[in-house]
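Design request, tokens follow.
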């Protein structure tokens, strides 16, 4: 019986490349989801229509109209309406503080004229 001796081998994995690749993939998915949300398209995402009233942002009424999902990402489409007689600034930073693990957000207008509506889009990492 002959014994074989095999020299030890090692595999080098550049973890920075793996991490950067995962980040690029997540950024690409975030862009795709935000684009789908802004155009109200379905694309590869699970989309659920809803009509859920949320607490106001200052004097602006807020209603969630859509929920987007893909893997560990969740996106919300919110309609903000200025029901006052004066122009109102949309406090996006104040609004997104209501959510955990926010990855990105977008607002269609920084301020709203009286009786005008706009949208806020929020994408967060799911809690699951």
């Amino acid at each position: 019986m002959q014994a074989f001796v095999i020299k030890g081998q090692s595999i080098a994995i550049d973890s920075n490349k793996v991490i950067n690749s995962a980040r690029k993939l997540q950024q690409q998915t975030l862009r795709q989801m935000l684009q789908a949300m802004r155009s109200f398209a379905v694309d590869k995402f699970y989309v659920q229509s809803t009509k859920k009233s949320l607490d106001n942002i200052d004097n602006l009424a807020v209603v969630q109209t859509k929920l987007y999902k893909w893997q560990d990402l969740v996106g919300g489409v919110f309609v903000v309406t200025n029901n006052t007689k004066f122009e109102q600034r949309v406090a996006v930073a104040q609004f997104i503080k209501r959510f955990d693990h926010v990855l990105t957000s977008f607002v269609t207008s920084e301020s709203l004229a009286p009786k005008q509506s706009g949208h806020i889009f929020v994408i967060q990492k799911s809690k699951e």
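Comment from the thread starter after seeing the answer: thanks! Confidence is low (pLDDT under 50) at residues 15-19.
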